[in-house]
Design goal:
With 106 residues, this protein is mostly beta strands. The chain has strands spanning 14-17, 26-33, 38-41, 46-51, 61-66, 69-70, 74-76, 87-92, 95-100.
């Protein structure tokens, strides 16, 4: 069964690339597409797009934009970016708070 949601990553998470040309590089998740199970990561994988002249770009030309990546190629890491882990939830003051797996232990 193929999941149609990105469950382990949220916008703003610090992630590390697990495979591919950018293996080991860290970045912040800028956007998540649950429909396609893909994410955009700050500083990882820019691509060039050739555009025709339009109202936004009267001259046209080549622009750089962030690439969409499969979410399975990334894993959440701690704030220092050294330890990989998972995101979980912890109850604090009667509210459910999302925390890194290393911080869940009491």
């Amino acid at each position: 069964m193929i999941s149609d949601r990105v469950k382990h990553l949220k916008k703003g998470d610090l992630v590390v690339a697990l495979s591919g040309a950018y293996i080991g590089q860290k970045g912040k998740v800028l956007s998540v597409s649950n429909k396609d199970c893909q994410i955009q990561v700050e500083g990882i994988g820019t691509q060039k797009k050739h555009i025709k002249p339009n109202q936004q770009h009267p001259k046209g030309g080549i622009i750089e934009q962030l690439r969409w990546w499969p979410a399975s190629k990334f894993q959440v890491c701690d704030a220092s970016g050294k330890k990989l882990g998972r995101a979980g939830y912890k109850e604090a003051d009667g509210k459910k708070v999302r925390v890194y797996s290393g911080e869940r232990k009491n």
